[in-house]
Amino acid sequence: MSGIIERYRAYLDLGDIPAVTLGEGGTPLVHWATWGIQDIYLKLEGTNPTGSFKDRGMTVAVSVAKAQGARGVICASTGNTAASAAAYAARAGLPAFVVVPEGRVTREKMMQALAHGAKTLSVSGNFDQALAAVRRLAQERGDIALVNSVNPWRLRGQETGAYEIVDELGAPPAALVLPVGNAGNISAYFHGFRRYGRGIPQMFGIQAAGAAAMVEGRDLENPETIATAIRIGKPASRHLAQEAVLVSQGQFLAVSDQDILRAQQELAHGGVFVEPASATAYAGLKVLRDRGALPPGPIVAILTGTGLKDGQTPFQWIDQTTYPTSADALGSHIERLLEEGAARVAH
Ligand SMILES: Cc1ncc(COP(=O)(O)O)c(C=O)c1O
Questions:
Q1: What was the pLDDT predicted at 52?
Q2: Distance (Å, rounded) from C-alpha 167 to C-alpha 265?
Q3: 289 burial via Cβ count (<10 Å: 0-12, 13-18, 19+)
Q4: What are the angstrom distances between the C-alpha of 148 and each of 188, 214, 272?
Q5: Ligand 1 in contact with 230 (CB < 6 A)?
Q6: Long-range CB contacts (< 8 A, 24+ apart) of 71-74?
Q7: Per-residue pLDDT tens digits for 60-113
Q8: How far apart are the first and last CA of the chain?
Q9: CA 177, 178, 183, 184: dihedral to nearest 10 degrees?
């Protein structure tokens, strides 16, 4: 079956409405490492159709919008929601309007939204201000569906990530580690595990230190981090996320931009290329390990978006050396590089 609606329709309360789908979900759960008594798995959400986990929620939100006769969809976005909304709206034959904080969305995400034909509006200010504006507009108009994660259908769709993990491991993991911005995804996973009825893992929400509104327990006016996807100061799902962490006996944790870059590099050197926001989860996972805060058993980190979403940031750590050579000299150059171990990277 293709797409999360057909696979999990019984859990989604959608009746028999037609699915607007691009075949999302079914993402790889890769065994990454064994750290003593922990088996570490990475869920590669960047393999979704538009390159991020947002597609799980978007297929549901856009299917409902279409079935209810919406004239279009609108969202505020740090980029991934825009790309996803644009793609699913295009699939549904609906216009998409995306509102982004000016100059703070990666080129690649903007390109995606524009390629799918979305009308893009930029506001000066940050994501939080953009979200407030689209919420107001959607409420006033009524005929344009708001497809941010404040739309409950988005979170219902994102719950399916939890279902997949339970289906694949045969039980919930001992802990789940994921990046937190607007706090929708951590809330969706929590409710997903609850609805699936097999138990709830300890939930660890990782934030960038400059945008750690959940860790600090207060809203921030000027969030700042290289991980633009989670550069959010007023998490819309704060209360749901607090409940998730409290009930599951997990915690929120902040990591520095430096830690995020190192985590992105380490994952990439192990073959897994994710965007900075997603690397935040792995950076947090390592801090939790070093503090002895992880429970024994399988641990899953949700890597929310592909590295191809941000073509700039990795150049802060990529070794761009190229070696001048010639056809005649190639063999000896390769031999020397092998001896120097230059072609080998470790994680
Ligand atoms: C790649 C990526 N990771 C994590 C998040 C955070 O998810 P949430 O805002 O639901 O906390 C986002 C949100 O935009 C994202 O794009």
A1: 98
A2: 30
A3: middle
A4: 13, 19, 28
A5: yes
A6: 71/95, 71/143, 71/144, 72/96, 72/97, 72/143, 72/144, 72/145, 73/97, 73/144, 73/145, 73/146, 73/147, 74/98, 74/99, 74/134, 74/137, 74/138, 74/144, 74/145, 74/146, 74/147
A7: 999 999 999 999 999 999 999 999 999 999 999 999 999 999 988 999 999 999
A8: 36
A9: -100
Say what the pLDDT of residue 342 is.
59
User: For a substitution probing ligand 1, which of 255, 304, 308 has the most ligand atoms within 8 Å of its CB?
Assistant: 304
Closest CA to 56 of 136, 165, 142, 197: 165
For the four alpha carbons of 286, 193, 251 and 274, in that order, the dihedral sign comes to: positive
d(CA 90, CA 20): 10
158 CA: nearest ligand 1 atom: 10
Task: Give the C-alpha distances (Å, rounded to integers) separating 263 from 18, 129, 277, 289.
Answer: 40, 30, 10, 14
Which structure tokens are listed for 346? 């470790």
Q: What are the phi and psi torsion angles at 247 (to 5°)? A: -65, -35
Residues of the chain with pLDDT under 70: 1, 342-347
Q: Ligand 1 within 6 A of 158 CB?
A: no
| Inter-residue contact 116 to 96 (CB < 8 Å) | yes
In angstroms, rounded to a whole number, what is the distance separating the alpha carbons of residues 224 and 228?
8
* Residue whose structure tokens are 């990666």: 106
Could you identify the atom of ligand 1 that is nearest to the CA of residue 183? 11
CA 155 to centroid of ligand 1, rounded, Å: 12
pLDDT at 2: 87
| pTM exceeding the 0.90 threshold for the entire prediction | yes
- The H helix count followed by the E strand count for the chain is 13, 10
Q: Tell me, what's the pLDDT at 346?
A: 45
Measured in Å, residue 239 CA sits from the centre of ligand 1 at: 16
| Domains within the chain, CATH numbers bracketed | 4-52+155-314 (3.40.50.1100), 55-152 (3.40.50.1100)
pLDDT for position 320: 94
**Which pLDDT belongs to residue 347?**
43
